[in-house]
Amino acid sequence: MLDCSLDKPILKNPVKLVVWDLDETFWKGTLSEEGITPIIGNIELVKQLAQRGIISSVCSKNDHGSAMAALRDLDVLDYFVLPSVSFQPKGRSISGIVSALQLRPDNVVFIDDNPSVLAEAGHHCPGMVCLDSPHQLAALMDSPFLQGALDNELTRLQQYRLLAGKHDLKQTGAGSDESFLRQSDIHIEIDFAVEENIDRVIELINRSNQLNYTKRRVETEEDRRRLLADLRAFGFKAGIVPVRDRFGNYGVVGFFMTLATLREYRLEHFVFSCRIMNMGVEQYVYEYLNRPQIDIVGPVANPIETFASVDWIKDGSPDDVVSTLRQYKLVVIGGCDMLQLSTYCSADSSEFTNRQQNGFMKRLDDPFLILDDAERVRKSELRPHIPAFNADEMLALKAAVEEGDLTVLSLYRMMEINYFRGVDGLTVRFDEDAVRDILKSDLALWFVRSFNFVPSTNEERQEIIRLALHKLSSWAKPGAKIVVLLENTRKLESNPDEKDLRQRYNVFIVDTCKALDNLVCIDINAVTRVDWLFDDGFHMSREGYYELAQAITRVFDDSRKQPAAADA
């Protein structure tokens, strides 16, 4: 063993990071040649270090994909942060790892069987402790400098994984959308197993609007049979588009169907979930399909071809993602932007957001979705004809919150005044655009006769939201958390009245959360950068939702640690 800087006694400082070589160090053999044999003791060392709050990384000259696959097969990949696997000089790579994790070389140990590599590493990281064998690390495990702090929940590991992600974002320099996307490691698949995923395909076709370029709905059983028949018909080609990136696995978020004849080559269906908006996925798929003819039915959120080129998307299969929440059940209630948030948090989420119904926008951020009686809603003769929640959605929400580990709410839209009471005695909140569309449709006279506008003060709407939060709180299982997002108050200099309303709403939410043990609020103004805000002050770019997801992760992690602390 040697000190990579000078001949000083080793382990003079607490160890916070151990960097491992792979071939003939972490495992026996060479991955690219004769194959490898696992060393169980080394795997246990990495896990033991993690439980002490000491993280591990990798610096290896290998094929990145092969090395990651091997570590995954050994069920140890998730224990390594910011692995550097390439054929670049190791000294600079290790220096980059140490810098990215905001550590000093004095707190780092590097293990490699090659003395020249150890010397190179010492040149780039003066003060780092170098070992030529994992056996030397094992012999030092009783050292006070390798004790760390007990962390059976691996919270420290998760914090460093998020820090590694944040470093990648900083590396983009100007922070442009395209540079962020290049750091996101976006992978898509073009999968032609449509019939096996037909329910998800139909859900996309009917629920997606902003990135549904053809808007050919499948609303009846006859429509479904026709779609299935087209999938088997000559000339049609269809596929689904699963997407993942380094922050989350989005699942099946796109569907296309082309028809090729002697006279034309056109898109019959071209639709994507808004959760992958601004990632360039639709442009990538369109170019993959060789730009078929398409009759775009507006409105759509953006043109198909938005970027000069999409060079950041790769073909690939699903991979693990970094989030402590992804093993838990998540429930989200709010606008469509909550879909982008949910994908950063959990692979198992129930989403109560905007939907389409009979050509109108239906919003589920309605307090009466929580407060009303499901049987009264089911018996209502008005409900099938209006873009509003139904009894099944009410029951689904209650079941999701009862089973969920975390519920995240964005409720400010409930403070808008678009509340109407029908002749059935039920009150409902309509989307403002939906009201305009209804009044321009054949339903206009029926709507005016069936519904009355419900005037209400700001305080009265707050009281309705307070009651809804109390009811949600009563549904949640022991240990579950409900996170209420405060509203953005930035970029509103030109609209001081709106800013004042949002500030008053935030004060109200803070006070309400203080009264309920399982509610906590997160100030979006404090945890996200103003740079990510769009001009309307309601929506953010993907970077903002990632930062917000990090804040939610911290809240959830803290809540999970509290019982253990109490027991101690």
Please describe the topology of this protein.
Elements: E1 2-3, E2 17-20, E3 27-30, E4 35-38, H1 40-51, E5 55-60, H2 64-73, E6 84-85, H3 90-100, E7 108-111, H4 115-124, E8 129-131, H5 134-139, H6 155-170, H7 177-183, E9 186-188, H8 198-207, H9 221-232, E10 236-245, E11 248-260, E12 265-272, H10 281-288, E13 313-315, E14 329-333, H11 337-345, E15 348-352, E16 355-357, E17 360-362, H12 368-371, H13 374-379, H14 391-403, E18 406-409, E19 419-422, E20 427-429, H15 432-439, H16 444-450, E21 451-453, H17 458-475, E22 481-485, H18 496-514, E23 519-522, H19 524-527, H20 542-567
Helix pairs in contact: 3-4, 6-20, 11-20
Give a nutshell description of this structure.
By secondary structure, the chain is an alpha/beta fold.
Question: Can you offer a commentary on this structure?
Answer:
By secondary structure, the protein is an alpha/beta fold. It contains 20 helices and 23 strands. It has a six-stranded mixed beta sheet with strand order 1-8-7-2-5-6, with helices on both faces. A five-stranded mixed beta sheet has the order 12-11-10-9-13, sandwiched between helices. Strands 15-14-18-22-23 form a five-stranded parallel beta sheet, with helices on both faces. The model is unreliable at 5-9, 169-175, 317-322 and 564-568 (pLDDT under 50).
